[in-house]
Design brief:
- By secondary structure, this protein is an alpha+beta fold.
- The protein has helices at residues 7-23, 32-38, 54-63, 114-119, 146-152, 161-167, 170-182, 188-197, 206-217, 223-232, 234-238, 240-243, 259-271, 277-285, 290-293, 307-321, 328-339, 342-346, 353-363, 367-376, 383-407, 418-425, 431-445, 453-466; strands spanning 27-30, 45-50, 71-74, 79-84, 88-94, 96-99, 108-111, 129-131, 140-141, 154-155, 185-186, 250-251, 254-255, 295-297, 301-303.
- The strands form 5 sheets. It has a 7-stranded mixed beta sheet.
- The N and C termini lie far apart (84 Å).
- The structure holds adenosine-5'-triphosphate and magnesium ion.
- Residues 31-32, 45, 47, 121-122, 126-127, 168, 170-171, 174 line the site of adenosine-5'-triphosphate.
Length: 474
């Protein structure tokens, strides 16, 4: 395996090497950057480790560059950071070793050698270093067989796994995340270590956990990571609601599908078509309320009535629990969970324009995302059934297009405002105003009136009359 650095990379590597040499500091390029270059993955974050004062090194590096970049110093952590034009991030840190007292969670960190520093990294493939020192410039320093593991696509801890994971339990999630992103296999001992230490994940902050979870969800095939999280026992601790979907129950010979693996399949299907984290979260959560709504109906089988509504209500709670943002992204996920059965129900009946208008009205600009989720939700093993559904969906899509073209519902704004209703009938804000507004909306969605000002105005007058209101003369 050989690393080919670009001209730009060679430029700043030389500058770091020169600064290090003038300060007499032994310095290495380490970690993710080396790994990603060897794997030909795009990367712009480079980490440097020097044996000594990293703050001094970073300042010296910056001083040698024109134009001179700003250096951010984090004195308490002993790290420094330089951002270069083009999005390059150079991070400098002094080599450290950690020693853990068994009675304390916090490691004692003290200066160490490059070997010490490599040893405290999570995986052998993340512990590779490239020397920037004159005596062996460009050589790979690989004390734990990281290159062999890269070649064999194996994830393995440099120390005995129990120690690596006990020291920082987030490493368990990182290992599973890399297995998902890179398609690597977790070494057997390392896997056993994860299963044994899963309980310790509770000492890690929710933000760091969720960060890894999001990276898993954003991978090409997220099911790999979610299944590993489940099988290791980590999922139960970080996201028990998803584990509750696992399993199938049988009664009178009637079963239902395993909703955990169904959800994973939906997420994988969807991930072929979108990298949108929130749309992917909608897939993760679309059936989340199935355990709560599960009933057995005699002679009929299992039902999950209302799981979309209960599930929608669970979305803000789960977002709070996982420290995901409680903003428009959450509302988007909630809306998709609530609406996820609608398009499929439209394929079962005679699709009326009015049903299509209601769907367009409620989904608004998220209609395309909703349709994508619904298509991904078709996971039957029966190919014919899948194809039938997919072609029915095509029909729903076409009808949506037709109706939208005709009626412009997606961003529908009532052609008659509450203000105008009040003015017309000399009303103050009151119940009749709401009644008229709602009936206008329904009349338009049901196709009773056209989506125009004139039609709505006439309808408003008529509706007012029904309510015993008289227009005030203007
Ligand atoms: P990515 O950038 O895709 O998140 P990465 O491995 O590059 O993955 P960074 O957070 O950029 O992760 O960290 C850079 C390097 O620091 C890693 O390659 C690894 O050597 C080390 N590292 C990061 N986090 C940990 C950790 N929790 N325990 C041990 N080593 C770590
Ligand atoms: Mg990185």
């Amino acid at each position: 395996m050989k690393i080919l650095f670009t001209k730009i990379e060679q430029g700043w590597l030389t500058q770091v090497a020169q600064a290090a040499s003038s300060l007499g500091l032994e310095t290495y390029l380490v970690g993710g950057f080396v790994r990603d270059k060897l794997l030909n993955r795009p990367t712009k974050d480079a980490d440097f480790v020097c044996v000594g004062d990293a703050l001094m090194l970073a300042q010296k590096v910056a001083a040698g560059m024109t134009p001179r970049p700003t250096v951010s110093l984090f004195k308490t952590f002993g790290t420094a950071h330089i951002q270069l034009p083009g999005g390059w991030d150079l991070e400098f840190v002094g080599a450290r070793r950690e020693s853990y007292q068994s009675n304390s969670r916090k490691p004692q960190v003290e200066p160490g050698t490059i070997q010490d520093d490599q040893l405290r990294r999570d995986l052998t493939i993340n512990a590779l270093a490239i020397s920037l020192n004159a005596s062996n410039y460009g050589d790979l320093v690989d004390p734990f067989g990281g290159i062999a593991d890269l070649e064999q696509k194996i994830l393995r801890t440099p120390l005995p796994p129990d120690q690596t994971f006990a020291d920082d339990p987030l490493r368990m999630m990182r290992t599973i995340r890399f297995a998902t992103q890179l398609g690597f296999t977790i070494d057997e001992n390392t896997w056993t270590g994860i299963c044994q230490q899963a309980e310790r994940i509770k000492i890690i902050s929710q933000e760091r956990i969720t960060d890894e979870l999001n990276k898993i969800i954003l991978a090409d095939k997220p099911s790999v990571g979610l299944d590993l999280l489940y099988r290791s026992g980590l999922m139960e601790r970080i996201f028990p609601q998803l584990v509750a979907l696992r399993g199938a129950e049988y009664r009178d010979g009637l079963g239902h599908k395993d909703n955990f693996y169904h959800t994973l399949q939906v997420l994988d299907n969807l991930s072929l078509n979108t990298n949108d984290l929130w749309l992917r979260w909608a897939a993760v959560l679309h059936d989340i309320a199935k355990p709560q709504t599960k009933r057995f109906e005699e002679g009929h089988g299992w039902t999950f009535h209302g799981h979309e509504v209960v599930g929608g209500r669970m979305v803000p709670k789960i977002f709070t629990q996982l420290k995901l943002p409680l903003n428009e992204h959450m509302r988007f996920v909630r809306k998709l969970v609530e609406l996820h059965l609608r398009p499929i129900s439209l394929t079962k009946e005679n699709i009326t324009d009015s049903a299509i208008r209601r769907l367009l009205f409620e989904a608004g600009d998220d209609i395309d995302s909703l349709m994508m989720l619904c298509e991904a939700d078709i996971t039957s093993k029966n190919k014919q059934k899948v194809n039938r559904y997919l072609s029915n969906f095509q029909l729903v899509r076409e009808r949506c297009r037709e109706v939208e073209e005709k009626d412009q519902i997606r961003n529908w704004q009532p052609p008659i405002s509450g203000e105008l209703i009040m003015q017309t009938f000399g009303l103050s804000p009151s119940k009749p105003v709401g009644i008229i507004k709602d009936s206008l909306k329904d009349a338009m969605l049901d196709g009773v009136i056209a989506n125009t000002y004139e039609a709505a105005h006439a309808y408003m007058l008529e509706k007012g009359k029904e309510l015993g209101l008289t227009p005030v003369s203007s």
